[in-house]
Amino acid sequence: MEKDDDSISAESLSLHTLASIRSLIINADTSGSVISSVFNFLTGLLSRDDPAILHHVLKLLSDLSFWRKELATQIFDSVLSNLLRLQNFAADASHGRFAVESLALLASLSETNPSIATALSKIDGEGFASICLGAPISSRLWLLRNAERFDVPSSVLLTLFLGFTKDPYPYIRKVALDGLIHTCKAGDFDHAHAVQGCYTRAVELLGDAEDSVRASAARAVSMWGKALVKSKVETKRRECTDAVFLQLCSIVRDMSVDVRVEVFKAFGIIGTASESIILQTLSKKVLGAGKGKKPQSHHSNEPADVSAAAGVFIHGFEDEFYEVREAAVDTFHSLSVNSIEFPDEAMYLLMDMLYDDYTVVRLKALEALHH
Predict the structure, then answer these.
(1) How many CB atoms lie within 10 A of CB 123?
(2) CA–CA separation, 140 vs 172, rounded Å?
């Protein structure tokens, strides 16, 4: 430990040396003075800009904070101070990885020590965004999944998530959509243009090539679609609800089971639509009331096609996968609450579901009939 920090390189910090340091940390018999020396040695290495060293240093500091909880605050302060110093270098991939690892350690320490949690606010929205943009793929995934653990303004998160829905990597797009859904649930926004933008992007991703992205897009369409309806004046809300409902109907025959399940769950979130559209979901033949009726789509200049609703619930009840049938039956109650004719028209279809091969579907059908 007496060796000058400036003479240390990635090569000199061998695995044997690192293992020796860790053994000192986890050994309950190690004296306080030795632990203090280890702490000073490791925090001294933080000032070096060698990513190969910094990765191991953070791991050892994490171990030190776990085994020597009295040092947690000092470790937090040292790592945070170094991270703020390195923010200007976050665009570099190697420094970006180190910045994410630092954030992970800080988040963990703040959750186990609430008294230091407020210090995380020093990492402002701009700093968090710069780390996201400079992080490699795997680290970017972690950042987007854990963004809510940091004190980042909702406006910054909304911008980040919306931007990353255009990422070339499908897993990033999916996590970004999930982030938009979480932001929508938080309800921390009141900008009609932002709501429209998020809904429009979610609709675009209903046509994504990746199944998981389309499934998340279906959830996002329902959540942001509901927010979009609320943002409209009273006279426009019914038309907007119909457009969102029909947008979801357009992918009810998706090839992916997960997507079809999410679509029926999304119907339950929307909860309502015009009587003629809901009744159309029970008939594969386009009914007279729906012919020629095209409510204005709220993401493009093209009108929404009412024929998209034709036989939606028939397809759901007859789906070969029980998960889809379960979701379809489960959604029935949400739609029937706000409809007069729909429950009566769907009665015979639900009666058939009582003979389903799967118990869970039969129970859902029985519950729906009871209500």
Answers:
(1) 21
(2) 8
